[in-house]
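re: that chain from earlier
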Amino acid sequence: MSYFHSVTLDREKCKGCTNCIKRCPTEAIRVRDGKAHILEERCIDCGECIRICPNQAKVAVTDRLDQRAGFPRNVALVAPSFLGQFGRDVDPERILHGLLCLGFDGVEEVARGADHVAAAIRRHCRQVPGPRPLLSSACPAVVRLTQVRFPSLVDHIIPLHTPMDAAATLARKAARDEMRLSNDQVGVWFITPCPAKMTAIRQPVGLVRSEVTGALSMTEVYGAILSVLSRSGGDRRRSKGSAAGIGWGRAGGENESIGEGALLAVDGIHNVIAVLEEVVRDRLRDVDYLELQACVGGCVGGPLAPENPFLARRNLHALTERLARSTPEPAVDLIGSSALEGRLTMREAIEPRPILQLDEDPAIAIAKAERLEQVVGQLPGLDCGSCGSPHCRSLAEDIVRDVAFETDCVFKLREQVHSLAKEMLELAQKLPPSMGHGQAGKGEGATC
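^ sequence. v structure.
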């Protein structure tokens, strides 16, 4: 299977420093011949390598603003986290109007989609029996993490589409109803805080094709909108996002929006891994639903978000509090007769992603697995990363897959060099047979 990935490597900038291999949550990076190499089947586009790389050699590929020229009408999908990138006193109306000033023909708030998804989650949790806890499907990096590292938990992922997909469906319906346009005449562009959303658009999980046309880097759009924000009065577009829907942009906001059941929110990819390990051990049976976000602080902490994540989270919190005082909350049951009726459920099952196949032949694979354990036992177990693999076991896997050598381990290489030096010394001390074991010209019966 071929994979699309937003996260890519700039080989010219890569110095082979190995920082990324220690931080990657799925062990998707190796350093070989002085350059990092991303394993496609393991990468989940979480962006951790983008954060950690001191040389800025990891980059996220997103769409460009000029690609809107290919569509008669273009709609911007405004993520709640985007609203948190501006000051505490900047009203959403000004930001939405600023996007119209940038050339978008319309805007759709992802917060509206979040309201619909929250209602669908409540309904699903009440009516559908199944494994608990249910796992949120909102973060595509976490969904892919589950496929790669926790394949036994894919059935726990709630089979509902994300607020982004819901908002895109609403945007397309509005274009069809109001402008009499077909789907291929409408470009729907999500302003993304992370590379995982870009990947989810190009290669979605749970549906054949995303309703979203493409993803624009939040940093790029933020820079562009600052130039028009001062003249953006907000008189052309009234924000329709509720406080609960906008709260999805920060950690804990999704659970606050759902509002019922035994809920737990976890943010930060390594914290998510620790909690999913508890789920595998069957220690969270008293939890109904897990909100899981790969980025610390939630989407406001995405690697493509320009503002400091703690300031953005504060801004978003202040905005939701202000909106909660001034606007009514959405109805508890939004799904009944809406445009999203029957369109929020995933049409395709989420399957585990195969990541380590030692061999297609089962007998050979078993033999390689036995050899893998032998190699692990021979390695020092220090997990230093100097070999270019995350730890000793991953190096052993690479060795049995014939993509690495035992001497890639500096300690094994030193052992071999020491052994070779000892042999060389022994050879250097040996004399030719014609010279005997003593010095020539000495002892009884010495002859010419």
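The chain has a mean pLDDT of 89.
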